[in-house]
Amino acid sequence: MPQGFKRKLLKFRFLVKYALIFGICFILLIFISKAVLPLYSFTKANNITSQFLLKLISNKELPIKSYQDRSNILILGFSGGIHEGSDLSDTMMVLSIDPVKKDILIISIPRDLWAPSLKAKINTAFHYGEEKKPGTGGMILAKATVSEIIGEPVQYGLGLDFSGFRKLIDLLDGVDVNIEDAFEDDKFPIEGKENDFCGGDPAFSCRFEKLSFIRGVQHMDGITALKYVRSRYASGKEGTDFSRSKRQQQVIQAVREKLLHLSPLQDRQKIVNFIKTFNSTVNSDMNWSEKLSFARIFSTMSKQNIRHITLDSGDKEQNTKGYLINPPLWQYNGEWVLTPRKGNFDEIQSYIKCEMYEANCQMKP
Questions:
Q1: What is the chain's pLDDT, residue by residue, as a tens digit (365 residues)?
Q2: Are 169 and 220 in contact (CB under 8 A)?
Q3: Which of 56, 74, 177, 267 is deepest in the core (most CB within 10 A)?
Q4: Distance between CA 103 and CA 302 in Å, rounded?
Q5: pTM
Q6: What span, in angstroms and rounded, lies between the C-alpha atoms of 149 and 345?
């Protein structure tokens, strides 16, 4: 290298030094703005702190809303899509959780239950709430209405449509469900054929398919599980909303069991995909710290500590009574609805409180 060029290079070496420092600082600034600051904003907005992470690991004093040590989560299932009634709640249940006693009570609420404050069936609450305040009003009104019925505050809500339900179960490679009673359903609606004229067939037979479920353990993919929980026109007791609620509880339990048996190492990608899909398809008013807290709680619960109750009108074959009745159609503008047998919800609320807070509740309809 010529000596003159070396002298010029040495003369400006301080500029090279500062340029290098400036370049490093610039790259760090970009990294902070693109990665660190969003991560900081996310953790701050979702209350994810070092203290929270320690509590999450120890499963103590998790930051979830509760009343008398119980957190109540309303779960809503929708048909979804763009057809009429797509935002009516096809499924409604409350998960009442006591993380200290490690107790979960699942309360199934029939969609045809009459809600006095709405002057309509309870499954319309989300729809009317969305009409008033799109995006958040549906869940707010649905939680408030269910709270009036059960007499307990509802802190959180989760909403999921049928397509999301199928995706989540398929991501788990299906679930195993123990079918207690075999049934057939000749009128299960075929998606996309709701308005098909069936070539003039007055019975519109092309709109429906026949379902058949035999007794015993069956492995179900997303579509099969959806048909199992949605079936409404089976003969006998399996054609009631109350039996349908029990089937929905079965599938939720099956999903939980499948998740608990996944290996963090071998099934790492499956777990990641499930979490991503859950977050993108489930409408929730929980932040991430609350989601993580409930995931931690569910992972520590044993199957024996999960109880189920269904608000129903009883079973004549089993000679059991229920808390609900089906009043004459003329009393409710010709609609088939369910109402409390004693005219108000006091008896039902006492029953729910008993199941929630008394270790050996003996209250029966």
A1: 555 555 555 555 555 555 555 555 555 555 444 444 443 444 455 455 555 556 555 566 677 889 999 999 999 988 766 666 678 888 899 999 998 888 999 998 998 999 999 999 999 999 999 999 998 999 999 999 999 999 999 999 999 888 888 999 999 999 999 998 889 888 888 887 878 888 888 888 888 889 999 999 999 999 999 999 888 888 777 777 778 878 888 888 888 888 888 887 888 888 888 888 888 888 889 887 788 888 878 877 787 888 888 888 776 666 667 889 989 988 888 899 999 999 899 999 999 999 999 878 888 77
A2: yes
A3: 74
A4: 9
A5: 0.78
A6: 6
